[in-house]
């Protein structure tokens, strides 16, 4: 038996962390047929096991000292720092849902309430385990690409993308607003996250708000927050995304859809680094970097009176333009192979490859949905694959005329037309 096969046949290591011995033993007995189970009643004992055994899965009760959940939060943080792909599931009482949600926000995979339904817990553990393994494989794929063909999670080997990589690296180090411009599906949010990852705010919050997806009457509150009683449903005060991003980065997606009155408030924040919540009088000082993105021609929107010129100038001090996929065709097959490798691993489909005709179709297609469309088509093709080769039909890349079988007479006429065209080109 090969070492790889032997490793695959070994049971997954699961660490159960709970300070109730009876519950700990019950869970261990219920799960030991499916996992190699380790158990710990304290954060210290759990940390020792994590370092020695490298479990892929952990179930964790936050309140390990009987009252405060802080020891559990500390253990969660240490485990994820030790292995970012480790999947940690909170097993908690119904009265601790707020802490469970906080833990998920800090990196836990999911949470499960007591009393535990073992069958449901097994399904949940299997799901998060598969996710963790997929993340590991994706990280390995990225590592294989070589530094010159990627920047973090961004992939590309064309001159256009190398220029984008260089611009991201330069702007990441300068703490100014950045405007990312590109068609839908070109990877604007990935660029925003790379700017944060490479900059001095990497360990601070990253908060996103889609300016085009939230109704205008709610968008101001989402962005700037509100005080209790500010409007009919404001029963309690709420921090906005700008406050929540304190010290870090706020990503304003589709900034071109921001209503004109809110453009004024955003400009004031960019100038003064201060906000007031809706319905509030207190001036709140903030240290937040703003990264915005749009698929619109904002200069044109300024000319048409739909976007403030002064806000446009503030945002575009640092600008990054992402080329559409059709303008960097040398990246198409490179990206296609990257996504094929990713989803073959994700769905366990064995070896798959593109046929020669499929490669030509990939390069010929205009990709109006850009990278998002390419990834989506390849994922669907991998899921539905029945053989070793993916053809253009599997990716849905046949032109309408190509989808209809031609009669012998039509085929002969087309051949004659092509022969005549070739002869004319030669004269």
Automatic annotation (TrEMBL):
Residue ranges of every copy of the Response regulatory domain listed in the record: 13-129
InterPro entries, A to Z: AAA+_ATPase, AAA_lid_NorR, CheY-like_superfamily, P-loop_NTPase, Sig_transdc_resp-reg_receiver, Sigma_54_int, Sigma_54_int_dom_ATP-bd_1, Sigma_54_int_dom_CS
UniProtKB keywords: ATP-binding, Nucleotide-binding, Phosphoprotein, Transcription, Transcription regulation
An MF annotation (GO) of this entry: ATP binding
Domain Sigma-54 factor interaction residue range list: 154-383
Record-listed 4-aspartylphosphate modification sites: 61
Gene Ontology BP annotations: phosphorelay signal transduction system; regulation of DNA-templated transcription
Domain of life: Bacteria
Keyword ATP-binding tagged: yes
PANTHER family per the UniProt record, alphabetical: TRANSCRIPTIONAL REGULATORY PROTEIN
Protein name, UniProt field: Sigma-54-dependent Fis family transcriptional regulator
Source species: Eiseniibacteriota bacterium
